[in-house]
Write a structure and sequence with these properties.
Elements lengths: L15 E2 L9 E2 L19 E7 L2 E7 L35 H11 L22 H7 L1 H6 L2 E5 L7 E7 L10 E5 L22 H11 L9 H12 L1 E8 L3 E2 L9 H5 L32 H16 L9 H4 L13 E2 L15 E6 L5 E4 L5 H4 L8 E2 L21 H11 L6 H12 L2
Antiparallel strand pairs: 1-2, 3-4, 4-8, 5-7, 6-11, 8-9, 10-13, 11-12
Helix pairs in contact: 4-5, 7-11, 10-11
The structure holds heme C (HEC) (2 copies).
Length: 440
C-alpha cells in the first residue's frame, strides 16, 4: 500500500505499546510534533498526527492540543474490568471499533482482552463465557458487527409502554432493554450537535463519567482532573481519510481532504439551516472536477461523487444526501435533528436482535422496533426509531455503518438509500458516490 510522504512542516509515525498495568491495550502513540512556525506563521499551533492504513488508503488524526498523550486517562484503565475508553474507541479503527479489530483482539487474547466483558460486550450479562467456544458465541455481535449492548430504560412519563419483549438472549426486561449499538467515534466531536445516537447526554464531561461507570464499571466518578483531561483530548481530535489508493493524497492539487482543513472548518449549531441553507455541503474536492494526469480517473470520480452527494435529488420533495447531512464538510446535521430511516423497524430485524413491542397509549397503536432510539429520551411515540445524523468523516476506517451496524460496507449504505428513497442511482453514480464517501 502506498502512503504519501510527510508534507512540509509535518511528519508522523506510530508505535504500538502495552499498557502500564499489563492490560493488553492496543495503543497507537502519537509522536509529538512541533510544527515549525516559520512557514505557517498564522498556523503556529503544534499538531500531533496519527496515521493508520485501511482498505482504501490511510486515515489521519490531527490534535489541536499538539500532543496525543498516552498517559491521558482516555488510554488508561478507568474502572474495575480493565477497560479504558480506547478499548472501544481505537484511533486505528476511526476512534470506534471494527469487527475485524475485535476479532484480532479475540484471537490474540482467546477472548479475554478487556473489550470482552459481560456487562456490555456480550449478548447478555448472563452469557456463558467459561470456555473460548462459549466466548466466541457470547461476543458474536461484537465480533460480527462491532455492537455493544446498551442497557436503557423507558422514561417514567413515556407515552408508551413495553407490551412484549422478544429477546433471543432472555435477558431484557421493561426496566432494562438490551439495545445493540455501534460506538460513535470520539473524534470530530465539534461538529456534533448532540451526544450519543439518541442525544441522551448533554455534555462530554457527564458522558465520560457515565462511560467510566457503565463500560468500565468504575466504582467512583472520575476526578475533575481526569474528566477535564479526557474531554480536552477528545475535543482536540480531528480525523479524516488522508490518502486514497486510486486518488493519492487527498489534500493535493487544491483538494482539502484530510484532518488539517477540518480543524479550521467553521461550525455552529444551525450553521446551514433555514432559508439560506446551501446544498453544496461538501466542497473538498471541487478542484478535482477537471483533474489531469495519472490519478485523474480516481480524482474525477471523487469530485463527481461529491456533486451527487450535494445535489442528486430524490423523493420525497427533492431531498438530497446533503439535506440531512448539512454541516459543511462534516456531514452531521447542524441543527441536531433526529431522523428515522426505518433501520430499527422490526421488518428489517435480523434474528440475532431483540425486538420490543411498544404500545402508544394515546394513539392506541403498536410499534415493533429493535431500538426505540430518541423515544427512550423524550418518551414520545413520534420519536420511536429516530437517531442523530452522524458525522461522515473517516468512514473508510470504521465499517460497519448505521447505529446497528446493519450496513457492512459503503456499497451497502448506498444500496440501502437507493431502495429506501427509490432513488434509481445508475451504476456510474453509485461508483462515484462510494468513491467520494471513501475519501472522507
Ligand atoms: C465497551 C465499549 C465502550 C467503552 C469502553 C467506552 N465507550 Fe464510548 N461509546 C460506546 C458506545 C456503544 C457508544 C454509543 C452509545 C449510544 O449512542 O447509545 C459510545 C459513545 C461515545 C461518545 C459519543 C460520541 C458522539 O458522537 O455522540 C463519546 C464522546 C464517548 N463514547 C466517549 C467515551 C469515553 C470518554 C470513554 C471512557 C471513559 C468511553 N467512551 C468508553 C462504547 C464504549
Ligand atoms: C432523511 C435524512 C437523511 C438523508 C436524506 C440521508 N441520510 Fe445518511 N444518515 C441519516 C441518519 C439519521 C443516519 C443514522 C441512521 C441510523 O443509524 O439509524 C445516517 C447515516 C449515514 C451513514 C452512516 C454513518 C455511520 O457513521 O454509521 C452514511 C455513510 C450516510 N448516512 C450517507 C448518506 C448518503 C450517501 C446519503 C444520500 C444517498 C444520505 N446519507 C442521505 C440521515 C439521512
Amino acid at each position: 500500500m502506498r502512503t504519501p510522504g510527510p508534507e512540509v512542516g509535518e511528519s508522523a509515525f506510530g508505535t504500538r505499546v502495552a499498557d502500564v498495568q499489563g492490560v493488553t491495550l492496543r495503543l497507537v502513540l502519537a509522536v509529538l510534533l512541533l510544527v515549525a512556525a516559520v512557514a505557517h506563521a498564522h498556523h503556529a499551533a503544534p499538531q500531533a498526527v496519527l496515521r493508520d492504513a485501511n482498505a482504501s488508503g490511510v486515515i489521519a488524526t490531527a490534535s489541536t492540543a499538539g500532543v496525543i498523550d498516552p498517559a491521558n486517562p482516555f488510554f488508561q484503565s478507568v474502572g474495575r474490568n480493565g477497560r479504558a475508553c480506547v478499548s472501544c474507541h481505537d484511533p486505528a479503527e476511526g476512534w470506534t471499533i471494527t469487527p475485524a479489530g475485535a476479532r484480532a483482539r479475540f484471537e490474540t487474547s482467546e477472548g479475554l482482552d478487556p473489550l470482552f466483558r459481560t456487562n456490555d460486550g456480550s449478548v447478555s450479562p448472563r452469557a456463558d463465557v467459561s470456555t473460548i467456544e462459549a466466548r466466541r458465541s457470547a461476543y458474536r455481535l461484537l465480533l460480527e458487527r462491532g455492537l455493544i449492548r446498551v442497557g436503557l430504560s423507558v422514561p417514567a412519563d413515556a407515552e408508551f409502554s413495553v407490551d412484549a419483549i422478544d429477546d433471543p438472549y432472555g435477558y431484557a426486561t421493561a426496566s432494562e432493554l438490551s439495545i445493540f449499538r455501534r460506538p460513535l467515534p470520539t473524534t470530530n466531536l465539534r461538529f456534533g450537535a448532540s451526544i450519543m445516537w439518541d442525544g441522551r447526554e448533554l455534555a462530554l464531561d457527564a458522558q465520560a463519567d457515565g462511560a467510566a461507570r457503565d463500560h468500565a464499571l468504575s466504582a467512583r466518578p472520575l476526578t475533575a482532573d481526569e474528566r477535564a483531561r479526557i474531554v480536552s483530548l477528545e475535543s482536540g481530535l480531528y480525523t479524516a481519510q488522508i490518502s486514497d489508493n486510486s486518488a493519492g493524497a487527498l489534500d493535493a492539487d487544491g483538494a482539502r481532504g484530510g484532518p488539517r482543513s477540518l480543524t479550521d472548518q467553521l461550525f455552529h449549531p444551525g450553521i446551514n439551516a433555514g432559508a439560506s441553507a446551501d446544498r453544496a455541503v461538501f466542497s473538498l474536492f471541487t478542484p478535482w472536477a477537471n483533474a489531469r494526469g495519472r490519478l485523474a480517473p480516481g480524482r474525477q470520480a471523487i469530485a463527481r461523487g461529491e456533486a451527487i452527494f450535494n445535489h442528486r435529488a430524490f423523493r420525497p420533495r427533492g431531498v438530497s444526501c446533503s439535506t440531512c447531512h448539512d454541516a459543511p464538510n462534516a456531514g452531521s446535521n447542524s441543527s441536531g435533528v433526529f431522523v428515522s430511516l426505518g433501520l430499527s423497524d422490526a421488518g428489517l430485524r435480523t434474528p440475532d436482535m431483540p425486538v420490543y413491542t411498544l404500545r402508544c397509549a394515546k394513539a392506541g397503536g403498536v410499534l415493533r422496533t429493535t431500538d426505540p432510539g430518541r423515544a427512550l429520551v423524550t418518551g414520545r411515540c413520534e420519536d420511536v426509531g429516530k437517531f442523530k445524523v452522524p458525522t461522515l468523516r473517516a468512514l473508510a476506517a470504521r465499517a460497519p455503518y448505521f447505529h446497528n451496524g446493519s450496513a457492512a460496507t459503503l456499497e451497502d449504505v448506498v444500496e440501502f438509500y437507493d431502495r429506501r428513497f427509490s432513488i434509481g442511482f445508475t451504476a456510474a453514480e453509485r461508483a462515484d458516490l462510494i468513491a467520494f464517501l471513501r475519501a472522507l
